[in-house]
Amino acid sequence: MSDDIYKEIILDHYRNPRNKGKLTAPDISAQDNNPVCGDRISIDIILKDNVVSDIKFDGEGCAISQSSASILTDMLMDKTVDELSKFTKDELLEELGTPSLGPARIKCALLSLKVLKIGTYQYLGTELPEDPEN
Description:
This protein is α+β, with helices and mostly antiparallel strands. Helices cover 47% and strands 20% of the residues. It has five helices and three strands. It has a three-stranded antiparallel β-sheet with strand order 1-2-3, with helices on one face. A hairpin with a 4-residue loop joins strand 1 and strand 2. Helix 1 packs across helix 2 and helix 2 packs parallel to helix 5. It is globular and about 40 Å long.
């Protein structure tokens, strides 16, 4: 795909975010921010039989961070907790379409994944890996 198509996808998710909001009594809930640029993301997940039955994100920030959260929540619906814990940054970046993102913008794109990993590992009661974005 061309960079223009990727930019359109990002802008569409930024202007029309999917799964934006908060959930009451989520099974998994976490938040984090990127102090360098001020992005803030929270993710709430409700599980049914260990499978994502509802997911919401909330936050503020640049188009990349907010679009990434919207895209990630779309990708995670109906995934198991095990699949959440194994979800990689490459999967998200491929879906986001980031051929032109520089190193500074990658942190914006991966903030939602970091929040997902924090929440998932807290839910599982295990240590977060050294690189939570992987």
